[in-house]
Design a protein that fits this description.
The structure is a homohexamer of 255-residue chains. Chain A is α/β, with parallel strands linked by helices and 255 residues long. Chain A has one domain (5-254): Phosphoenolpyruvate-binding domains (TIM Barrel). Chain A has 13 helices and eight strands. In chain A, strands 1-2-3-4-5-6-7-8 form an eight-stranded parallel beta barrel, surrounded by eight helices. In chain A, strand 1, helix 2 (26-32) and strand 2 (39-43) form a beta-alpha-beta unit. The D-E interface holds D 26-27, 30-31, 34, 55-56, 59-60, 62-63, 122-123, 126 and E 26-27, 30-31, 34, 55-56, 59-60, 62-63, 122-123, 126.
């Protein structure tokens, strides 16, 4: 089975740069898979992408050398199994609030006896290889999102869930749930403290930690702080940020 | 009928900033239509976008306040009429080599007696308004691309075609056809001279001139040089440029 | 944030006319958004429309001035959050049987601390405006469908759910569940009584009531009876009714 | 090969009622195919429908018992052959201006030696039957649209083109081209005269005549006048007309 | 209402041959519906097909004379009701582990009072007929998949669920769950015994049994053993098996 | 630029096995790209595939190691340039009847000065590599279909067209045009003679010859006869042939 490059990066002590896709377009997916990201995540929660749209995106990313991850919209077995069957090498599950949630999440991603995943990885075997079934439980990564008060309260129990590979932080929901303004890139303040606490809990449990960002300097700081994976921006933010800069420059030139 | 803002900008002596879309996605189109561009062009020549994909993109751009333009893949009446029926307010036609080409192009975009456009603007009337038929010949812009040796040789005749509104320059094909490396952003050299020649021919004929670019400073220079419309970049270039920058910054931070 | 016109109509003592879409087509959606409806609902329960198809429909409706509502297929958080992220200004949830159901429904539609909605309204902010997050809990409407015996039995408790804005009636399921023929447009009889009972319960609880119809005279009567929103027909019924009439008229003319 | 019911209707002295589709939706197509139309035409000229969208529409109409016709966007062999391969039993070709146009049109629709149609009717054989190749040249109907000054000038020559089955009239383009307001349903006046002239030319040449309408009484009159096929409305007009009526009735009831 | 041919085959003592589709393509569906299968199942669990893709597939199969079945991805009411509304005449539900699971499954497929299915079979009435509502509970088949240890342990209780029509076996998950290699076509051994046990339990409870295969000889044996329905292969396996054979033959010829 | 493996096979004296796709599905394309074909052709002439559908198919084939070829529907520059921009490494052009046709075909596939292809290979550079522009004229193959009387009459002139790489034979159209039954797999007879004549003309002109088949033994014979590329079957034929065999075997077993 094709190796999961994130595991190799982590084994080597490195941190991974994760691209983020919200446009349901195989063309965007293919281009992004050739830019140098270590992984690229398809967001099925806060974007128009659904499983049907994701499949040709995963296909278009196959030749690009990035680890394909999918953030599912909810902790539901059907969507997670369908994401994996389509060839995802990692699942980010939102709103993991307690040990039961994380166990349910992990079970959906693992074949028996470790879990309840149903056999039929129609594209997993194309992308992963003929021996997919033998190694999928090891190669496929599970990321539990900690973004609620309950999630923080049950941090240790969640992080110690057998088969869980990483915690992933969505800073705006985390802030929101704790009564703070839902902002990204919290260099300091109470949300920054929560983020550090989650990262430490992951590492204490022997698993990895990832975090979402919108500023590159913040993403760089998160790597320096010890995060194993950072998502520095998204496809759409790259476009809107660039457009703003270009149009301002043109306007200035016209005046 | 809804006014064509490009005509208003030009009447006021201004130059227009034109966005450029190659991703067949209404989501990208909608977001781009809210960034401040004066016009946004859907490229049906060198991208996966076709008419069927363009229609929901035009719909998604309706509320955004940009002038919707379409570059068609070829000087064929059917695709131009279908683009206009769908609500395009401007057509950029590639490979206009002589007066016959430009007349054929313009005829396809104009209702009788000015041209041969067939009646049935199913979305033109939604976007443009109930009196679309009365004003379409005036509001809709026609851009002939000059990008071959023949096109340059017949510049004056083309520019003086009745009903033609503008010349548009694709610098790489223009360079290619004249034996130069197909590059954008020609600040000087023989391709820069050709570009200036085309701009001057347009203005001499009393029509407008537009040009494609990939660098904002070049686009700004083109405005300074007198171009009426510049396309400083594309959706995909914005993403790839941003990704390159972010990943380099992250890599530097990791080392 | 863009105001919800239904709230303005209701504040002014008016009743709203709601269009109903079952064809997964942005073209139908755009045209329907320009016909004069106060709101237009996309039905994701009993039609081929799903979230992926709904997004370009919502985009196509943006310029039309109707309040975009979505009926979701089931009381599941993921589909409701995805509908809202895409820009829906109201959710109709089927099969709300008790207080727990209605609380679960409302929670999925409200940001913390009122609910558990996750942050990431990728299109909500385009359609609603940059301050979407500040006002979404107030502007977005929640309609609980009462259509089972349990739903009727728990009417008061459901209607008094904090954050619930309205009850909505699907007369055929309501009739079915109570052992009556599943018909629309119940001018009188036991189903009419149930419908009146639900409307009264809504108003007693200080919330709104809406009802589904297929005949305009019935819809008009429902407004006269005090309903705050009526759905007099659907896209498909309009077509089939018109076709039947036209073909009968032509046949008569031929004989 | 499945018989073409239009030919049977005509052989029996009848006139056909033709439905008209502009929404690219197999759901609309399937429903419309069950309403009692004799034929249903997919419009690929003035609508978002293209060949790719038309194929599932034709499939959805297969069980409905209507003759599937396609109006192509232009007199181009490739789109006509693709329409036929997909199972169309009739082609309406716009803008036939002279004998060369009509010969080119007919040739594209006929297998050798009658024409140049290429073999490969991947869906024609499913819908038509295993002996499709033996009878396609007889069963498939060709409708040339007369809608320009040239078309009227060359009426006789066009109508006498071997292999042409019918003339079809788009009244708005016809009016437009002759300097009249582009309106449907011309009960009298110069456009009505042109329409009668075309009908008579068709019949004089021993072929059929069809006409487009938006009012049922006009369509009925056209049948009474001797037209062999009328299109009394379209999918979209049925919806907008119904919506206008319903909303007016509701508004009146509210006041 | 159109009769369910599987019930007729079974009433006549026959066994049914079931085709299996994993390609989201109406073209494949239409062609497959004309090959002579008694039923054709659309797999929404282990394939890219989702409800939106399934609808045009069902439409394309309408004229082909096969019973349309859908395997849903999970025991969730919404997807089952949407599958039925779209015209499925049978549902295969994976991972039915106990009586509560099977009751939940059956309830979602039956109108009140037998179940909780919501009224609105927008395509069921087109495909099934105007009296769909009167007979749907009888004509539509429910297949519970037995493929876990719990499922086997609760075999009798599941098989005796009122309204359940059949058990269906996915041999690889069944094997997997019992610690055996996940293989199809178990002619003998412990998985073969489990399969026989499930078939016998179905028949003891007076319901039907179906089984998945990849080899025709195994499928034939299963019929001989008393299975009521066999799925001998899938669309994709037919292609890959044929390609392997053809390429080997060509290679041999070249050497 | 990625090398064209067909040229390498031919340089080594080998013959290529070409797969053939008519299902517009990236899933089928991806699976087929892993079966061992040397090349896989997407048929845009006699199938529902169009350019928009072809792009994700090409993407899905990227990792599979087959040379992606497209048969275009007609000798039109726009569709050929769009096919190449999307990453096709070969174009099969139907109905090449004379030297002018073949020159027009080749010109559309070659950058200046060899041809008139417009610069903008948005996916060609992803699939082919950054130096695509420097080598595309050499790596991309052009196949002219000889399938009419004119085509045979002008065989030598066509075959000698500068820049043309191969002739390709569609036996059914070739037979049709010469008054023979349109059949594949002509082991002998007048169509077999024509096929041999075309192959010889190709080789005499120093270019390659390819042929379409439906039987593997015929394909093998064609290789033995000296053809450089054979298409032994298509995706759809593989399915229908397999289904026929399986169903016959099952039926026999049941009796």
């Amino acid at each position: 089975m094709r190796k999961n490059k994130l595991k190799e990066i982590w084994a080597g002590g490195g941190a991974a740069a994760n691209g983020w896709l919200s446009v349901p377009s195989p063309y965007v997916a293919e281009v992004m898979s050739h830019q140098g990201w270590d992984a690229v995540t398809l967001d099925l929660q806060h974007s128009p992408i659904d499983i049907a749209a994701a499949v040709p995106m995963l296909q278009a990313m196959s030749a690009g050398g990035v680890v394909p991850i999918m953030r599912v919209p909810w902790n539901e077995p059907s969507v997670m199994m369908r994401a994996l069957d389509a060839g995802a090498y990692g699942i980010i599950c939102p709103m993991v609030n307690n040990r039961a949630d994380s166990e349910r999440f992990v079970a959906a991603c693992r074949y028996p006896p470790a879990g309840i995943r149903s056999n039929g990885a129609y594209r997993g075997t194309i992308y992963g290889g003929a021996d997919y079934l033998d190694h999928a439980n090891e190669e496929i990564l599970t990321f539990a999102m900690i973004e609620t008060k309950d999630g923080v309260a049950n941090l240790k129990e969640i992080a110690e869930t057998p088969g869980l590979d990483a915690l992933y932080i969505g800073p705006t929901d985390l802030a929101f749930a704790h009564g703070h303004p839902p902002k990204h890139d919290n260099f300091d303040g109470p949300v920054a403290d929560l983020i550090a606490q989650i990262r430490e809990a992951a590492h204490a449990a022997g698993i990895r930690a990832g975090v979402h960002a919108t500023r590159t300097d913040y993403a760089a700081k998160m790597i320096a702080d010890g995060f194993d994976l950072v998502t520095p921006t998204s496809d759409m933010r790259m476009m809107t940020a660039a457009a703003a800069g270009i149009l301002e420059e043109l306007r200035a030139a016209r005046e």
